[in-house]
Design a protein that fits this description.
The chain is an alpha/beta fold and 360 residues long. It has 14 helices and eleven strands. It binds nicotinamide-adenine-dinucleotide and zinc ion (ZN).
Length: 360
């Protein structure tokens, strides 16, 4: 078992990573002395796989638990579902000392965190992430929220969990496309922070894709370490936390343009990472080798790197200028200088952006 800490003063918390540790969650929560009432929030697909293990572990630790299920899908990460959860919590008399447990991917984690942040002005919550994306990204760092029909993640809060408990064995039931999409965020950490981790991802690609236990533990641990280091320095994204958005300026525009249906999040980010690396080369910051190493890595993990021909560069450009992270018309790009080091770049000329999106 590996234990990392996200250092945020009195809101610090541990990330525990191990294989087969799901059944230990009850004992761990008992040791943390939460009040005995616990509500597990999940969806039917994940709960049918892991609900019994989690509920019996909590019960064996003498915690009084019940569960609430949300239908599976991003479209249910909304205000109505969070209202429904609150109704269930009130009906079951959860009090201010109680704890919520998010069992699932990023959708369940974001919604549970959001409810935890507003229920009776805030109660404890614990993350049990079951997708690679949730294990390396969304469960750590305290961004919570739900979608509004006018925009994704438009209602939310910064609210940290009390514990992140990662059982890498849950990835064995995850669809391979979902796993590989999560790998895009793992590759991102290599590019923004750690060149030797990037090399490891290339060297061990077969083991990683084959879900080798040690390799999974290594990549999840290193990803969480990097995310924790960034978040500890800039919890509310007032500065350097923005480097976690490498690939996301263009990636989000692709997701918006394709109505979130054609690409999984990591797939859109993969294209974004390649195109933002290309932008860096156009700006004479990165060299050709850097761009091609990123593209080769995406190929190895069967992730897309090119923009499909039917996606118009002007449409993407428009989405980027309307993005919530674009301040006063200034688009922000995270630009690799080399593998392992990025810079935050504003004031990029529109012609350079268009050239990166649409090579001649
Ligand atoms: N809070 C943050 O910092 C942050 C960061 C990145 C993404 N997100 C959010 O995360 C969400 C996406 O998360 P996601 O990619 O985990 O998607 P998801 O939660 O929709 O899960 C993907 C699919 O996998 C299924 N699933 C989950 N675990 C499984 C398992 N172990 N075995 C089999 N099936 C399993 C789910 O039921 C779902 O159908 C988005 O809403 C995004 O906005 C948040
Ligand atoms: Zn992302």
């Amino acid at each position: 078992m590996d234990i990392l800490t996200v250092n945020l003063g009195n809101r610090s918390y541990d990330i525990v990573i191990g294989s087969g540790i799901l059944s230990g969650i009850g004992e761990k929560m008992r040791q943390m002395r939460f009040s005995p009432k616990v509500c597990v929030i999940s969806n039917p697909a994940v709960f049918s796989l892991y609900g019994d293990t989690v509920m019996s572990s909590l019960e064996e630790a003498y915690l009084e638990c019940f569960h609430v299920l949300i239908p599976d899908g991003e479209e249910y990460k909304n205000f109505q579902q969070s209202y429904h959860v609150v109704t269930e919590l009130l009906g079951n008399k959860l009090d201010r000392q109680s704890c919520l447990v998010a069992l699932g991917g990023g959708v369940i984690g974001d919604l549970t965190g959001f409810v935890a942040s507003v229920y009776m002005r805030g109660i404890h919550f614990v993350q049990l992430p079951t997708t690679l994306l949730a294990q390396v990204d969304s469960s750590v760092g305290g961004k919570t929220g739900v979608n509004h029909h006018l925009g994704k993640n438009m209602i939310g809060s910064f609210y940290q969990p009390r514990l992140v408990w990662i059982d890498t064995d849950t990835l064995r039931t995850l669809a391979q496309r979902q796993f590989l999409s999560g790998m895009a965020e793992v590759i991102k950490y290599g590019v923004i922070w750690d060149g030797s981790f990037f090399d490891y991802l290339m060297r061990k690609n077969q083991k990683i894709i084959g879900l080798d236990r040690d390799a999974l533990r290594t990549i999840i641990k290193r990803s969480c370490q990097i995310k924790a280091a960034v978040v500890s320095q800039d919890e509310r994204e007032e500065g350097m936390r923005a480097i976690l958005n490498y690939g996301h300026t263009i990636g989000h525009a692709i997701e918006t343009e394709t109505n979130y249906t054609r690409f999984l999040h990591g797939e859109a980010v993969a294209i974004g990472m390649h195109l933002e690396a290309r932008l860096s080369r156009i700006l004479k910051i990165a060299d050709d080798g850097t761009v091609s190493r990123i593209r080769e890595m995406l190929d190895v993990y069967s992730l897309p790197s090119a923009l499909p021909k039917d996606i118009q560069c002007n449409a993407l450009f428009k989405h980027m200028s309307l993005d919530k992270k674009t301040l006063e018309g200034q688009m922000k790009f995270i630009i690799p200088e080399q593998i392992g080091k990025v810079r935050i770049q504003t004031g990029v000329h529109p012609d350079d952006i268009k050239e990166a999106l649409n090579p001649a």
